[in-house]
Amino acid sequence: MFNGSLPEGISGDSLQWHLEEESALFPKFVKDWEIFGCCGGKDSVHPVRLIVSLEDLYCGTTKKVSLSRNVICSNCTGKGVLKSGACSGCQGSGQPCDECRGTGETLSDKDRCCPGCKGEKVFQEKKIVEVHVEKGMKSGQTITFSQDIVFMVIQRDHRKFRRIDDDLFVKHSLSSTEARCGFQFALTHLDGRKLLIKTNPGDIIKLGSFKARPFMKGKLYIRFTMEFSASLTGEQCKTLEGVLPVSTSDMEFDKCEEVTLLDVSMEEEWRKAQAQCGEDNDRHGKIQCAQQ
């Protein structure tokens, strides 16, 4: 669980830095930061999560952020009041007393609130820092900014690329014609470069196959999927049969029962099965359906 509350038992310089929830100076950075952890020992330092994109990790980046932390008020040493005197009712003995409620101390009106912290015992210290994310850093790595400020790099999911260690993976869909006759397409890399991806004449891409392009930073793997035409005319089928291998089978088709294939929605089939299962339970008692 993440929150910005002040841990009990932590005081002075050991108080942890956290992101200001509202920052007028750097509002665009606010959403990229959140506190990582909230409790621990007096000397523990909890990393602040720095959310970055895959492009940031590939190219490197510098981010500014406004941080704040609660610091014990030095004016009142964390008491919230300036000074107190012995209770005149119990003479400071601390016995049950209506005037001091057993504390043994009373405050004058002018000393009831510390002007430095306005009675809050702590005040907010603010700091603006620049964090440098080096090229090639990985999600989960930490950046030590100072003795009491540590950042943890967290990568957002990318809509196109997936990173595994130092390698990148991307999917690309081909038509059946492109898979058999060749193709070329432009792929925009993380640094904005346009890569021309193409096959050599005569190369045939198999369904689900991978191709790799080596880089100094790692390899770029492309997984190819294939799109099939919704339907073909009789003439198109004859053309394909003339260039594609003919299917062979040892089965005697004249002894088979001919069936017809229909388009189905698996979601609809699942709903029908669940509905039928419910009807059977109502008729025969609460017997659970077996999972398929």
From TrEMBL:
Gene Ontology biological process terms from the UniProt entry: protein folding
UniProt cross-references to Pfam families, sorted A to Z: DnaJ_C
Superkingdom field: Eukaryota
Residue ranges annotated for the Chaperone DnaJ C-terminal domain, each copy included: 49-228
Entry-linked InterPro entries: DnaJ_C (IPR002939), DNJA1/2-like (IPR044713), HSP40/DnaJ_pept-bd (IPR008971), HSP_DnaJ_Cys-rich_dom_sf (IPR036410)
Alphabetized GO MF terms: Hsp70 protein binding; unfolded protein binding; zinc ion binding
Gene3D superfamilies, per the entry: Heat shock protein DnaJ, cysteine-rich domain (2.10.230.10), Urease metallochaperone UreE, N-terminal domain (2.60.260.20)
Keyword list, A-Z: Metal-binding, Repeat, Zinc, Zinc-finger
PANTHER family hit by this protein: DNAJ-LIKE-2, ISOFORM A-RELATED
Protein name: Chaperone DnaJ C-terminal domain-containing protein
Lineage per the UniProt record: Eukaryota, Viridiplantae, Streptophyta, Embryophyta, Tracheophyta
